[in-house]
Amino acid sequence: MLADVGAADLTLDPDDVARKMSPRTKVIMPVHYGGQPARMDELKAAAGDGVTFLEDVAHAPGATYRGRPAGSLGDVAAFSLYATKNVTSAEGGVLTTDDEGIAERARSLALHGMSRDAWKRYRASARSWRYEVAEPGYKYNLSDLQAALGASQAARLEDLNARRVRVAGWYDELLGGITEIELPTTLPTTTRHAWHLYVIRIRPEQLTIDRDAFIEELRDAGVATSVHFIPIHHHPGFAGLGVHPGDLRATDAAFERIISLPIYPDLAREEAEYVATAVAAIARRHRR
Ligand SMILES: Cc1ncc(COP(=O)(O)O)c(C=O)c1O
């Protein structure tokens, strides 16, 4: 079951979650979209007891919600260390949880489903060659090389995020006067934003071109952008989810308007100015 996002912040909407809760709801998976923590307290209140929260922290390592780190706000959290993320091990990820049962099961599943005892033997001592596969699992271990890269990247997280914050601040300043676009909304609960993405939204009612044409003109001006994301229910592979037109109104409306501008730690002030000048010129050229 998919729930809508909030129209302003584009994280999971607690009101829609409340509407869609059913006795079959076991897990809720909020995405800390773009590096901003979802509205966890409201989501938990909407969900009530007995529901597991799995945070998707792929965009938000180092972000904080009311002073608490993303990844510590639910029952279990998944971080991505994919090459495009704020910190990377080239490929791979991290789970965090304070639930010993979940931790144990994840360790076992990541290592072919070996039972805890076998896992311990395998790890801690070469004395016994015996092991036991308790259930079919996966080979989801990070290689040592990747782990070394991930560890050195993790040490740089604060610095890399601080530089992203600086770039976002430049965009806020440089794009602030362009009325044909909307800038990202930062929630009052976001005490630190990880700025994985800087997503502007065009205001189609004020422009004679649509989002796709806006992106093409940015590309012609030498500015590479992207769209995060095509909603899941727009893909044929997920047609079976039973989403009907109008069910995810805010998601669909946002999808028509969003553009992710370039953001990365090394982006220079002059580059942000170049991007902002290009956005302003396109908006001016196609003002309604
Ligand atoms: C919001 C979000 N969740 C999860 C993932 C998946 O991460 P990974 O590719 O490491 O599995 C991504 C990757 O782009 C993402 O953007």
Major beta sheet, strand line-up? 1-2-5-6
Structural class: alpha+beta
The structural domain count equals: 2
CATH class of the largest domain: Alpha Beta
Mean pLDDT: 95
Number of strands: 10
Could you name the CATH homologous superfamily of the largest domain?
Type I PLP-dependent aspartate aminotransferase-like (Major domain)
Q: Looking at the chains present, what oligomeric state does this protein adopt? A: single chain
Q: If helices are DSSP runs of H or I spanning 4 or more residues, what is the number of helices?
A: 9
Approximate helicity band: 25-40%
Instruction: Write the CATH fold name of the largest domain.
Output: Aspartate Aminotransferase, domain 2
CATH 2nd-level architecture of the largest domain: 3-Layer(aba) Sandwich
- Categorize the overall geometry: globular
- How far do the termini sit from each other? 39 Å
Beta-strand residue percentage: 5-15%
The main β sheet shows up as: 4 strands, mixed
Taking pLDDT < 50 over at least 5 consecutive residues as the criterion, the unreliable ranges are none
Bound molecules: pyridoxal-5'-phosphate
- The H-and-E topology, N to C, reads as HEHEEEEEHHHHEEEHHEH
Provide a concise account of the structure shown.
This protein is an alpha+beta fold. It has nine helices and ten strands. It is 35% helix and 12% strand.
